[in-house]
Design goal:
Shape: elongated
Strand content: 15-25%
Number of domains: 5
Number of strands: 21
CATH class of the largest domain: Alpha Beta
Distance between the termini: 105 Å
Structural class: alpha+beta
Length: 636
């Protein structure tokens, strides 16, 4: 079959009407659907002019559109009312497309739709008063507003001369519209609740005709009032349900976001564990090399570079731990105002000359239970983030205040309970953020800055610290309108604690026997060397089974078990329990690349045990070991 034949067959069988009209308005082609629209056949139309087929069609709006399309060669469309020869009316949606032979008219029968629309308009007119009053009732914010709008509606659209509406309540409302006629009819209808027959008020209608309210009219109006009351209740219930559904969707979105951040946090904690093992080797090896270094200044510079890079990596790892909410805090009762005041000079230097800093600290702020160092990091990170959002300068405002959040606020915001809070607010007038950006700002490594300009951990760290401190953080931002970060921390009744920094003292050498258990070979070798160089007798093993075998075979008199927490096979705490059954007064020091809190959450460590986190330096390890052994000696 030729292509033209296929095209012709397709056109002939289209459900959409298709006809081609020549410049002389002769039917060149008509498919079956188009012919049926005019209650004819293709054979009866092709070759005839439109005027021959449908007398008077050249006087219609449709013919004018066709003529203009034929002349200007521009597509057009319209909805056309077509009167059939028998007087019935059909409606069609027409599209006019210029073609080489003239104009193609594509038609779709929309008669049923038009009839439906007409019927709908009639129904809407019949229900005008009830439906519109119900809408007013559902959207009104006050009773006076509702009464006023209903009266105006009944006079304006209902055709009544005057209306008076009384609404019962603690403060009764009377609203009037229109002027009652000197003669005519008045009908007073009580308004009652649709479900409980509660007296809601009274509707008084005034008509200009004395016979306006016969029995039938009265029954209709009573039904109207009943429908209004019922519609008000239904619409209010529907609105309440929609609000509840929206709140549920919002809660689900927030829960999904929280789960995503929690999953990222677990990943961050695992990454931090592995890096902490590596950094323990790097930093400890650098310290050991420095102890053996002579006057070689070149190597001194190299070791400085290694240690600085290692410390920087350790700081980044600590930020990962902060985001995962597993770091160990030193909790104190803290006045947040004291942090703001103490850091203000540093913050001003950090912002530079082109950014103005304003500080507004609230009175009677109260205290928060948190780690002071971590809160300082939170404030510094927020200010740095605000500065970076204003590359051409601007203003940063820091505010603190004591606030009380009610149940309504708590219902609208995730993960916060009603109560007293200390609010820290950091605002800038920078570039602002889109909604898409706001969804990701607390994720580790997310950044809007270019490669190499940031670690992407600043706000992730803030998020982790705030959450671990029992608080919550909200971001308010729009493109071009700046950003405000609000942190709510639970307020406590306490007293500011003051602590003095003591200078570090030299770590005493030891001669005790230590059983070192570490599954990472490089960490084990470095730790063993550090302890031996400090004077301890060290026996090492790669896992719990090897440690138990070593203790039994050599009948070791163990003064200290130094063991990793999480190892293949039996864990460090399991090893400690088994050895404690064989070694009297066993002292244990646990160490791990995971935080102390992670080990506790996994049920591996009890609160209050001796713990040394990785990465540790030579001094960290030797000082902790010495302190644990000295405490053991005092206890004995």
């Amino acid at each position: 079959m030729a292509t033209s034949d296929v095209s012709r067959t397709v056109l002939d069988n289209l459900l959409e009407g298709c006809q081609v009209i020549s410049p002389e308005f002769v039917y060149l082609y008509v498919n079956h659907a188009a012919a049926a629209h005019g209650r004819s056949t293709p054979e009866a139309l092709v070759g005839k002019t439109m005027m021959q087929a449908y007398p008077g069609i050249d006087q219609t709006e449709m013919f004018g559109v066709l003529r203009r399309c034929m002349r200007e060669r521009v597509p057009a469309s319209m909805e056309n009312e077509f009167v059939h020869l028998d007087g019935s009316v059909g409606w069609f949606e027409l599209r006019f497309e210029p073609v080489p032979d003239g104009v193609a008219i594509l038609s779709v029968d929309i008669t049923d739709r038009k009839h439906g629309e007409t019927q709908l308009r009639r129904t809407m007119r019949a229900l005008q008063i009830t439906s519109r009053c119900s809408q007013l009732a559902a959207h009104a914010t006050t009773k006076p507003e509702l009464a006023r709008d209903v009266c105006q509606l009944l006079v304006g659209d209902g055709g009544f001369a005057a209306v008076e509406l009384r609404v019962e309540g603690e403060q009764p409302i009377v609203e009037r519209a229109g002027e009652p006629p000197s003669d005519g009819a008045t009908l007073a209808l009580p308004i009652r609740g649709a479900t409980n027959d509660e007296a809601l008020g009274e509707l008084v209608l005034h008509a200009g005709q004395s016979n306006a309210f016969d029995d039938d009219e009265r029954r209709v109006l009573e039904e109207v009032v009943s429908d209004i009351a019922f519609g008000v209740q239904i619409l209010r219930e529907r609105r309440t349900r929609l609000l509840a559904e929206e709140a549920q969707r919002l809660a689900e979105r927030r829960a999904a976001a929280a789960e995503r951040l929690e999953a990222i946090g677990r990943l961050a904690g695992g990454v931090a564990h592995d890096f902490n093992n590596l950094l323990t080797v790097v930093l400890s090896s650098a310290s050991l090399a420095r102890l053996q270094l002579g006057d070689n200044s070149t190597l001194e510079e190299d070791l400085d570079a290694i240690e600085k890079a290692g410390q920087r990596a350790a700081a980044l790892t600590q930020q990962l731990v902060a985001f995962s909410r597993t770091q160990r805090f030193e909790l104190r009762d803290i006045d947040f105002n004291s942090i703001v005041v103490a850091l203000q000079p540093l913050l001003e230097r950090t912002l530079g000359d082109d950014v103005r800093l304003s500080v507004d600290i609230g009175d009677d702020l109260g205290f928060v239970r948190a780690d002071r160092t971590q809160l300082e990091q939170v404030l510094l990170n927020l200010v740095v983030n605000a500065r970076d959002a204003m590359p051409h300068g601007g203003a940063v405002t820091i505010e603190t205040q004591s606030v009380t959040l009610d149940a309504s606020y708590a219902e609208q915001h995730e993960s916060i309970d009603p109560g007293r809070y200390v609010l820290l607010s950091v605002s800038d007038n920078g570039e602002g953020m889109t909604a898409e950006t706001r969804q990701h700002i607390f994720e580790p490594f997310f950044s809007t800055k270019g490669p190499g300009q940031t670690s992407g951990l600043g706000l992730a760290t803030v998020y982790g610290i705030v959450k671990q401190s029992g608080g919550t953080i909200w971001c308010y931002s729009e493109p071009g309108f700046g950003t405000t970060m609000k942190i709510y921390l639970p307020r406590v009744d306490g007293q500011q604690e003051v602590f003095e920094q003591r200078p570090a003292s030299a770590v005493a050498a030891g001669g005790e026997t230590i059983l070192l258990v570490e599954d990472d070979e490089h960490v084990r070798r470095v730790a063993e060397r550090i302890l031996r160089d400090t004077g301890y007798s060290v026996h090492s093993a790669a896992n719990a089974d090897a440690a138990l075998a070593l203790a039994e075979s050599q009948l070791l008199a163990i003064d200290l078990l130094l063991t990793d927490v999480i190892m293949p096979g039996a864990s460090g705490p399991e090893l400690a329990r088994k050895l404690a059954a064989k070694v009297a007064n066993l002292t244990v020091l646990f160490t791990s690349g995971y935080s102390h809190l992670v080990a506790q959450r996994r049920g591996m460590l009890e609160p209050g045990v001796n713990y040394l986190g990785k990465p540790y330096s030579v001094r960290d390890l030797t000082a902790k070991v010495r302190a644990v052994l000295d405490a053991r000696t005092l206890a004995l």
